[in-house]
Task: structure prediction
Amino acid sequence: MKHLGSASVLALCAMAYPALADVTPEQVWDNLESYLTMSGYTVSGTETMSGDTLTVSDVTMSMEIPDAGGDVSVIMGALTLSDKGDGTVAVTWPSPMPVMVSVDVDGSPVEVTLDYVTNGLDMTASGSPEELTYDFKADSLGLTLSKLIVEGNEITRDMATVEMMMNGLSGKSTLAMLDGMRMVTQTMSASGLSLTGMAAEPGTDNGGHFSLKLAGMDSSSESMLPMEVDYSDMPAMLAAGFAVAGQLTHSGADIAFDFNDRGQKTEGTMTTSSGNLTVAMSEDAMTYKVGNTDMVVALMGAEIPLPINGKMAETSFNVTVPLQASQEPQDAAIGITLAGFETSDMIWGMIDPGAVLPRDPATVSADLTAKITPFISLLDEESMAKVEDGMMPGELNALTLNNLTVEAAGGKITGTGDFTFDNTDMASFDGIPRPEGKIDLSVSGANGLIDKIIQMGLMSEEDAMGARMMLSMFTVPGSEPDTATSSIVFNEQGQVLANGQRIK
Result:
């Protein structure tokens, strides 16, 4: 795993935990230096003790980035650690701190300098050398692009700017040793985050702007870090016990962008009232979850025939996949929710000018869990190359449909299902493992929707009759008007039955 210097400095400035024992300035510096060295950095500095204060001057940390043909270095200047007389240590970071990154991008050398700036940063270290903790608060922490050089040519601030700022921060973290590994636990909150950027082509109107604002941020994470491992080799890190899990929530997002390309202007906005992100990774699996509420989107531009406006009450996506090859079935999952979708009357007017269809919010939601047997490691480049050449990456052993909901224009479908798969029988379903199980479906409003489509002139009575016959073949009438249910069974003989009637 690659660690950029700016990210490490931000992480170190977010460490805290209640005091457990007395700690000295020398022990705190040893802890910080050990953490950085373990993460792959070369750290240097001159230590000077004067009274109760340790000053580490001319601090630099650097690390090579082999895959990008470059390196990253941070010039910290002087770091001071002062004994507070109560068993804790005050840590004072210099500001600004230049973070310099040099990489090769498609054969072109790129040099980037970012200034890490703090305002009102107050940090206290406490605990013991074995479980050292940090407590911090700050008015703001930020990163600003101060220099960008591409192929020897400097991109000046009138051509490009990038700035990130977090305000009203507080948090705590602990660095502890556990079973020969370093455990890092962090929590942090911030009143807000802003990210802004601009790019412009000199002498023209070409260019654009981007901004992102998050309010009410809260985050937490836990990491297990092997002591001696190549941090550029992710498979080796995972095999050595590396694991990380983190969560981020916010109470509102506001995104805006605009750009002009030779007179062709495009602009858009997106807002949400809350959001969340969860990421977890270990030797066994990787999980990713993201969600938002009350999303509102607007987009317009010269190449867009009409303004696009829409909103959704809820959006979410989740996926869990095993990372390593295994001889036993492993857990997997995927889910998506697009709930309460609404669009503008202008777009509805193009689809349904007579306002025949109900304009109620639409929803599409599916939640699936599975058992799969992976034949390869997803992080092994040679194995992934074989998959591209046609090798099967694994086999599906079981699949559960926990929920299916499709609702729009007055019609609704819901369903659940559960299946196992016989991977030794690839003949019953033409190259697909034979499923065995059942899916239960409920349908409402189907006939009413067909009537409205006829009224709109999109379907003839003859076509509608065929659709209704097809529907009746696979369903049975429900207990309420214009409702139906269906139970589709896949049995061990490779047969398919709909409500007891064999259809295969």
In short: The chain has a mean pLDDT of 90. The radius of gyration is 29 Å.
